[in-house]
Amino acid sequence: MAIPTNIKTLLSGDVVEWARIEFKETWDAEASLKTVCAFANDLDNWGGGYIVIGVEENNGRPVYPLKGVPTDKIDFYQKSILAKCKLIRPAYMPIAEVVDYQNKKFIVLWCPGGDSRPYSSPKTMAKDNKERIHYIRKMSNTVEPSDDEEKDLFNLANRIPFDDRVNHQADISDLNITLIQNYLKEVKSSLYEKSKTGDFIEVCNDMNIICNLPEYTKPKNVGLMFFNMEPDKFFPYTQIDVVQFPEGLGGNNIIEQTFKGPIHQQLREALQYIRNSIITEKVVKHSDRPEADRFFNYPLAAIEEALSNAVYHRGYDEREPIEVRVENDKIEIVSFPGPDRSVTLEGLKSFHVSNRRYRNRRIGDFLKELHLTEGRNTGFKKILDALEANGSPKPEFETDEARSYFISRFYIHEKFQNVPKKEPKKSQKGAEKELKKGVERKKIILKLLEENPTMTQTQLTERLKLTRKQIQTDVKELRGEGILERKGSNRKGYWIVNKEL
Questions:
Q1: What is the pLDDT of residues 206-247, one digit of tens each?
Q2: Residue 237 CA to chain centroid, in angstroms?
Q3: By the 8 A CB rule, do 66 and 101 touch?
Q4: Where does the record place the Schlafen AlbA-2 domain (predicted)?
Q5: Exposure pattern of 186-211 as b/e (b: 16+ CB <10 Å)?
Q6: Pairing of the two strands 61-62 and 57-58
Q7: Tens digits of per-residue pLDDT, 302-335?
Q8: Angle at Cα 387 formed by Cα 384 and Cα 389, nearest 5°?
Q9: Please, what is the average pLDDT of the chain?
Q10: Of the candidates 426, 442, 419, 454, the residue with the CA atom closest to the CA atom of residue 499
Q11: Contact by Cβ (8 Å): 295, 279
């Protein structure tokens, strides 16, 4: 079984954070077993980690020249790894691969977060030892957990992140081998050659995108998100909507572009669209010096990072798209739900955020391999640096007490304020929406709700091919005028139309 990345990537630290990699000159069973256990517990949902044997380390970084594992030690180390890892409870086994690099051999252990947390391993290798510890990772160290951390570990039992769960409604045939091969080739994985000639099930198993039991083989959610052409069949509203309001939120002219498909593909296509259709550069020349000032209405790097983070952190079990709202003076990127409660409202306002829990650890790993997102807790800095370099105003990050949504808000560069904008090209979809406006649109909504009082706002959005914002605004106004009334809860309630418009 092969690892999903390559040793060159691990040694660089560019994709997998240093805190998730441990370098060992030799196989030390007592120390390394604790680290295997800690990665398996994956308290912060980081996606586990890697142990690279044959590399001397200094302050967590590899020391060059690399030493490698002596050829006569390879078999002994592998047998010892197998025997010692059997001491972990409940049963857990990392994926081990012998790799060649710079004419030397290394052993790489991939230790993904386990499905049966919490795990424990012996405190020592002494024969009379009976004490077991639920080891965890703290920064780059393997440590014994505090009482509170151990409680957190037990709370994680049977709480497998959504992206790592088995999808029982899908089939192995829903995974597209071409998409898988393209990904493996792009990230330079050693699995690429195997994918061209090897067994498809085995390749998927090596990538940990399926649950493979002798009698039951099903894809995991993360596999369907990246390697199925229509993930929205399994996760409704897995899409990015870029919505432009040339006349402001109250205007009738709305241009919407929707991006679907594998989540990394829709992210790239949405960013390309934003780059081509929304980002504008201004060049100001000066008579007293040859250098011109160049700046953008919005720095692309900041928008890229915010949208990538929305794809990374959104809830794929929520029937809500990611929405990029482009107004005359700002861009808002809206996703659902909001961040973990370890992110405080005060921290968001001061841009001091350290997220402890990660909703989609597997999605994050794939996106980082594709260089579509940065390491953990680095996104805010990249956004702030890009805005400062462009001379743009500070951003705003917003959520509510219930953490039900998250908004990244970017204001236009001051040199672009009050500048007449070109009329965007209207898609057919945008032209159709322009017809359904004002009173006419509200009448249609009332008629539909009178015929079907249990209809939801999401269903209205689908039926009328309108944006969620339009439906929400119209319904709010109708309720404020006493024309429309809601009885019961959002889930089990119904609408009452009190009078005609």
A1: 999 998 765 668 899 999 999 999 999 999 999 999 999 988
A2: 15
A3: yes
A4: 17-142
A5: ebebbbbeebeeeeeebbbbbbbbbb
A6: antiparallel
A7: 999 999 999 999 999 989 999 999 999 999 999 9
A8: 105
A9: 87
A10: 442
A11: no
Report the distance separating Cα 6 and Cα 99, nearest Å: 9
- Given the DSSP bridges, would you call strands 216-219 and 322-326 parallel, antiparallel or unpaired? unpaired
DSSP 5-63: S-HHHHHHTSSS-GGGEEEESS--HHHHHHHHHHHHH-TT-S--EEEEET--EETTEE-
Using DSSP, state whether 323 is helix, strand or coil.
strand
Pairing of strands 136-138, 57-58: unpaired
Better-predicted residue by pLDDT, 292 or 418: 292
- C-alpha 89/C-alpha 33 separation (Å) is 12
Q: What is the pLDDT of residues 340-397, one digit of tens each?
A: 877 888 888 888 776 656 788 899 989 989 988 865 556 788 999 999 999 999 999 9
- Parallel/antiparallel/unpaired status of strands 49-53 and 21-24: parallel
Give me the percent of the chain exceeding a pLDDT of 70: 90
Q: How far apart, in whole angstroms, are the C-alpha atoms of residue 280 and residue 269? A: 18
For helices 457-464 and 468-480, give the axis angle rounded to 10 degrees: 120
Contacts of 262 (CB under 8 A, 6+ apart): 179, 225, 226, 227, 228, 229, 231
Please give the pLDDT value at position 374. 66
**What pLDDT score was predicted for residue 265?**
96
Taking only the tens place, the pLDDT of each residue in 417-448 is 865 554 545 444 444 444 345 677 888 888 88
pLDDT in tens, 159-185: 678 898 888 789 999 999 999 999 999
**pLDDT confidence bin for 254, thresholds 50/70/90:** confident
pLDDT over 60 (residue 1): no
Length of the chain measured in residues: 501
324 and 307 in contact (C-beta within 8 Å)?
yes
Q: How far apart are CA 166 and CA 163, in angstroms?
A: 9
Of residues 133, 108, 107, the one with CA closest to residue 119: 133
Tokens of 327: 């107004």
The helix-helix angle for 300-313 and 361-369 (nearest 10°) equals 140
Q: How far apart are CA 78 and CA 259, in angstroms?
A: 46
Residue 386 CA to its chain's centroid (Å):
21
Cα→Cα distances 457→45, 56, 319, 443, Å: 34, 59, 12, 15
Residue 256 pLDDT > 70, yes or no? Answer: yes
> Which helix (DSSP H) or strand (DSSP E) does residue 410 occupy?
strand 406-411
Contact of 386 with 299, CB cutoff 8 Å? yes
**Radius of gyration in angstroms for the set of CA atoms belonging to the chain, rounded to a whole number:** 26
Q: Is 302 exposed, middle or buried (0-12, 13-18, 19+ CB in 10 A)?
A: buried
- Could you identify the residue written with the tokens 């001491």? 87
